[in-house]
Design goal:
4 copies of one chain form a homotetramer. In chain A, strand 12 and strand 13 form a beta hairpin. Chain A has a 5-stranded antiparallel sheet with strand order 1-2-3-7-4, with helices on one face. Chain A is globular. Chain A has 7 helices and 18 strands. In chain A, helix 3 crosses helix 7. Chain A is an alpha+beta fold. Chain A has one domain: Chorismate synthase, AroC fold. Chains in contact: A-B, A-C, A-D, B-C, B-D, C-D. Chains A and B meet through strand 1, helix 2, helix 5, strand 11 and helix 6 of A and strand 1, helix 2, helix 5, strand 11 and helix 6 of B.
Amino acid sequence: MPGNSFGKLFRITTWGESHGPAVGVVIDGCPPQIPLEADDIQAMLNRRRPGKVITSTSRREPDQAQILSGVFDGRTTGTPIMILVKNKDARSDAYQELAHVFRPGHGDIAYQAKYGIRDWRGGGRASARETVGRVAAGAVAFELLKQHKIEIIAHTVALGKTRAYRFDPQVIDQNLFYCADPDAAEIMAQTAENARREGDSLGGIVEVLVKNVPAGLGEPVFDKLDADLARALMSIGAVKGVEIGAGFAAAGMKGSENNDPITPDGFLTNNAGGILAGISNGDNIIIRAAVKPIPSIRLEQQTITTDHTATEMSIGGRHDISAIPRINVVCEAMVCLVLADHLLRQRAINK
Amino acid sequence: MPGNSFGKLFRITTWGESHGPAVGVVIDGCPPQIPLEADDIQAMLNRRRPGKVITSTSRREPDQAQILSGVFDGRTTGTPIMILVKNKDARSDAYQELAHVFRPGHGDIAYQAKYGIRDWRGGGRASARETVGRVAAGAVAFELLKQHKIEIIAHTVALGKTRAYRFDPQVIDQNLFYCADPDAAEIMAQTAENARREGDSLGGIVEVLVKNVPAGLGEPVFDKLDADLARALMSIGAVKGVEIGAGFAAAGMKGSENNDPITPDGFLTNNAGGILAGISNGDNIIIRAAVKPIPSIRLEQQTITTDHTATEMSIGGRHDISAIPRINVVCEAMVCLVLADHLLRQRAINK
Amino acid sequence: MPGNSFGKLFRITTWGESHGPAVGVVIDGCPPQIPLEADDIQAMLNRRRPGKVITSTSRREPDQAQILSGVFDGRTTGTPIMILVKNKDARSDAYQELAHVFRPGHGDIAYQAKYGIRDWRGGGRASARETVGRVAAGAVAFELLKQHKIEIIAHTVALGKTRAYRFDPQVIDQNLFYCADPDAAEIMAQTAENARREGDSLGGIVEVLVKNVPAGLGEPVFDKLDADLARALMSIGAVKGVEIGAGFAAAGMKGSENNDPITPDGFLTNNAGGILAGISNGDNIIIRAAVKPIPSIRLEQQTITTDHTATEMSIGGRHDISAIPRINVVCEAMVCLVLADHLLRQRAINK
Amino acid sequence: MPGNSFGKLFRITTWGESHGPAVGVVIDGCPPQIPLEADDIQAMLNRRRPGKVITSTSRREPDQAQILSGVFDGRTTGTPIMILVKNKDARSDAYQELAHVFRPGHGDIAYQAKYGIRDWRGGGRASARETVGRVAAGAVAFELLKQHKIEIIAHTVALGKTRAYRFDPQVIDQNLFYCADPDAAEIMAQTAENARREGDSLGGIVEVLVKNVPAGLGEPVFDKLDADLARALMSIGAVKGVEIGAGFAAAGMKGSENNDPITPDGFLTNNAGGILAGISNGDNIIIRAAVKPIPSIRLEQQTITTDHTATEMSIGGRHDISAIPRINVVCEAMVCLVLADHLLRQRAINK
């Protein structure tokens, strides 16, 4: 099967290029009778918009979500939900020079190798703009999760080498980096400003925390909940690593340290990140994604043209300093999609 | 769809419980006319067998692979290949006591929550014995990869807190930990011995390196090569984290450090781990999996019975000290399966 | 998985309701570098438009296809192709009375039972308007088939009780019923006129003939070419039967009559309809679909309201007398989609 | 995806060749806690065995079903159920002569074209023996359907040109042809005897009737219940046509005749065959499959060798006169599989 669909029962297909007429998503498998308004989608889409945040470019897209099918009288009907977002601010001419060169760290060279053709305007399909469809679909998935009281929070645990050390969920929305540690957020602001001045960019780490997940979600042995979450996050362009619970730190622990003791009142610790043998155990799900620095930088870089001649390039124009924190809501959306899918899958076998 | 299948075009379904009559795998979609003997499978299966290695239990399974279909006159026919391995050394009685208690760090409690029934004999389906089918299928996938000159090496880069610092591929098969750093391997032996004496267990990190991967594999935007690899490795019971190329370290890099400069002769560095925008770029693929310590330990642990009463348990009997290095060949097999699948998928669109 | 997608490698998802803002289709898996213009799609869409033909209603939809993604510089890029067609002539108020009654022979009562909610405007998702997406996608599939010189012809072999007895492909486009027998076409015109006068409707049989199909397409044992074709045609709303080659007549034959003798120059007969053991044998594919009469008729019918009270209804307004011949191009499109899918699937295993 | 799997949530994969060591099936997605014994499977398998019936060969296979996984303490566990049946009576030498010739009406020539290799022993994968796996899986599906009180009956409505005109379900098991018309059954016996004497074979028509199907099953617009049933039956080797309810007869009806009037007590007629717009409407499901005559006949036939030289062949040895009535239970099994799959799919969206 081709690769633009995600999920088995709550299944989405995203479509659209950065500088085409529109981007969007079709959701197939959303249960009927779920209240849904365009505003529910808009709210989540607005969180991935640039502009508010210090690390982002000045490109302004209203990103107005239109629901073209699958909703009737304010409720889902069980038929496919098409959500379309027009591309308004597409300055393709600014990318014309990219038609004949492969940008380092971007998918240009790989797309060309794969397809023998590429829409070079703004990265085409490989652009972060593709995530509009993911977030719109994630918003719909979240409406389903809300019926199960599931809560979900994405927050920044590292920007560049600056790490968060506290977790105060109240402050996440109060700083530019969606960071739960207000002191770290201040340092991040400085870090970002430095990178911008240098013409460079930053990576970071996003954590997604999910509360009230019912035990029993996940389908061993290949569609384990953690396996599907890992795929979900790794499918986001900038993500280079994923870990669940203690994650890479678990590799250095002993069994007696890593095992979460079980009591009649629940688990005493949560190194498992809420997932055992690929199935949710009822505890919070904790998952982290390592985000690489934005590859488009002003600093000169060594590369080649499409006819394989050496050249150098500096990428000017508007470019984010970091995918963080705009990527946070994308991570959140992907986690929503995985959970919605597994909720439905569990319903099927557990009447 | 249920969760016991993996791959879209080179598609496997594993089946079998630890203490049932047999375990195995059906491979559907293997191209015809590939030379295949039971010995090809046996060689790879032997590498996951316990006994040789210091971290493993003394359970001895001949693990004799039988090919029951799909091969005729020593070549694949394009029809499903069923490979069956009998369970010979299944001492279920040793597990009888586990019928009424949930082992910490194991899937027992999650399986019960999901299905309302569980085969408690030796972990049932959640046992590492399920990986026999993965490795057998991986061996078949590898026969396909060999036709494209693809090479694959799994090696241990950490056992507990002991890390490898050198990469000498020659020595991997010369030490008990499949470690490419012979000095580290010696320390690992001591580390393992200590853990055994303490009645505890160890985690670690496995790296899989793939050479000669053609550019163009991977299906954006959800079935990206790295997304599928992440899912593949995370679907192995003990794995809690996955990273590609620079991985989590990329989060702390600047764009100018992390971008791999492109020259007419190829990439100067490989922070991307051979994958850009989810598509192989022709460079080596590098991927690492964080493996948690074996949850079965002799040390007393706090847990509950199946009727939710607090209790303590010490797990005696034969248990590995670490999933490493037996898990290495499982990681290798999963990577083979992903690559075989994407080779076929790329063939379909690129005549 | 949900049910609005079709195909494994050449995979489409249709979306949209009869009286929503638009209908359309996303095609995922179309190979790159295929020349494609909106006009290619428009030509096929025009053939399902009402107006030209005597059996059809007067609803006029320009059905202008817009390509929103996946095509760059006149060629496919390998990324999802979104085709959108706006609904212009949607007189929902004419359907208001249908909100509280179940039309006999329509899906109203079944949709209500399944989803507990239904978009009653013009049949919603169950409307024949959904086939706009199928035809648009079929047009793209046909561009791929053309590269293999595959030809495809749909023609009417029966309207009501009037059957065609000759096959003269030249005349198919020269009569209102796309019938290859000009004499039968004349009788059909009379039959249709009679039904219209009676306030009744007609069924019929469509045959699809495919030439130059390469041998080897079809995936035993469940995705046999004939199995996939049967599903494809039976998924069209009005179709109640499908047969391949001799079809139901084969049930009354003896083996010596039904077997197609093989010679070095090919098969002497084609009772198999070009498919043996689910695989194309290189001969023409012949498949027929039985189309039921349009359920919306002016004659009074016995039915119930949505609160299960007995009532009678006469369905006035514009309604086709028969799904034939507008359905012919839909059948053709579905066959194109099956063949495109199996062409790609065969490429994958047969390098 | 490859073609040896069927179903989305109740998903089976059959494997095995006619003259390999065994045939079988893996069922993935069977809900947990369903009582299941090997005897349940055996009972259904016995109905497809030759020997009892006049049209069948004398090959005797005990067809002993072994459950190798997925069942614990007499109940399903939710993990894959592997059922294996050994091939005991495989006289491959009798087929040696078939290595170099293509039998008319068989898949030999198509398999060779597709794969470039074929297991010619007894038809290999294309043998009716493959259906053992389908029937075994169908028996498991039936255990699930029984929990919903669903009943299913397959019976013969035509053998060659002899048709049944009465429907007396009591007598189905009392004659050799599983025919509900005892008079027709007597004529069928004579018809079969004549064909045997002539060295020829017969086709026929099987009808499957399903009672107590809940309304709401089926997933528009491509996985409609009738579309999936059509694919299911057409995927059986000998089937060349499928029709639902009035089927091909509906093509000759007027709307006023074909529409089933709705009353507060249900439908007055059942031309729809229990399915409207692809969704079960609560009435009985009625579906028929046209079965072609067995292609292996004693009469001389024109064919070619594998090096494309003209030759003639008479196929001696044991061969059934007709796939009927052994195929009846296969049709029944396929219908069970479709219904089980759609029951689970409906559960997922309809909590």
